[in-house]
Design brief:
This protein is α+β, with helices and mostly antiparallel strands. It has one domain (4-138). It is 34% helix and 31% strand. The protein contains four helices and nine strands. It has helices at 4-10, 12-25, 31-45, 90-103; strands at 49-55, 58-59, 62-63, 68-74, 78-83, 107-112, 119-126, 131-133, 139-142. The strands form two sheets. Strands 1-4-5-6-7-8-9 form a seven-stranded mixed β-sheet, with helices on both faces. The chain has a two-stranded antiparallel ribbon with strand order 2-3. The two termini are 17 Å apart.
Length: 145
C-alpha cells in the first residue's frame, strides 16, 4: 500500500504554484495562458518539470507509434493536467488516470483554472495494486490486471 500522507507532502509545492498562478491571472483565461504562468512559477520556485512531455505507450512490451502528451511532469513523478473548462468530467479524470498508469508515476493533479475558485483534484497511483486513490486513501479506480 502506498503512503498517501507522504505523497500529499510531495505535491505540496506544486499545488502551491497552481494556486499562485490562478491567484495572479484570475479565472476564465485559456489553458495555454495558465500553462505559461506555470512555467514561470515552476522556474521561480525551482521545481523540476518537463512541459508537454511526449510519450509512447507499449503494447505486449513493444513501443507503439501512437503518442500522448502530458501538460507537465514535475519532479519526475507528478503528472499535472491543466484544464480551463466549465466543469471537470470523468473523461478528464480518465485521461489523468491513464497518463499516471502509462508513465508509472505515483501522483496526479487535475486542475481547472476556469472557475472563480481554482479546482485541484489530487490522485495517487498504487503501482503494485493498479489502483487510483484519492487524498484520503480511498479507492477511486481500479485498472484491470
Amino acid at each position: 500500500m502506498i503512503d498517501v500522507e507522504k505523497l500529499k507532502d510531495h505535491v505540496y509545492d506544486v499545488v502551491g504554484a497552481l494556486y499562485e498562478v490562478h491567484k495572479e491571472l484570475g479565472a476564465g483565461l485559456n489553458e495555454s495562458c495558465y500553462q505559461e504562468g506555470l512555467l514561470m512559477e515552476f522556474d521561480e520556485l525551482q521545481i523540476a518539470y518537463k512541459k508537454e512531455l511526449t510519450f509512447f505507450p507499449k503494447f505486449h512490451g513493444k513501443q507503439m507509434k501512437t503518442h500522448f502528451r502530458v501538460d507537465f511532469l514535475c519532479k519526475e513523478d507528478i503528472v499535472v493536467e491543466c484544464k480551463s473548462v466549465e466543469e471537470l468530467n470523468n473523461n478528464h479524470r480518465a485521461q489523468l488516470y491513464n497518463y499516471m498508469r502509462l508513465l508509472n508515476v505515483s501522483c496526479g493533479l487535475l486542475v481547472n483554472f476556469a472557475p472563480k475558485n481554482i479546482i485541484i483534484e489530487r490522485y495517487f497511483y498504487d503501482m503494485n495494486n493498479k489502483d487510483i486513490l484519492d487524498v484520503y486513501g480511498r479507492l477511486i479506480h481500479k485498472f484491470r490486471r
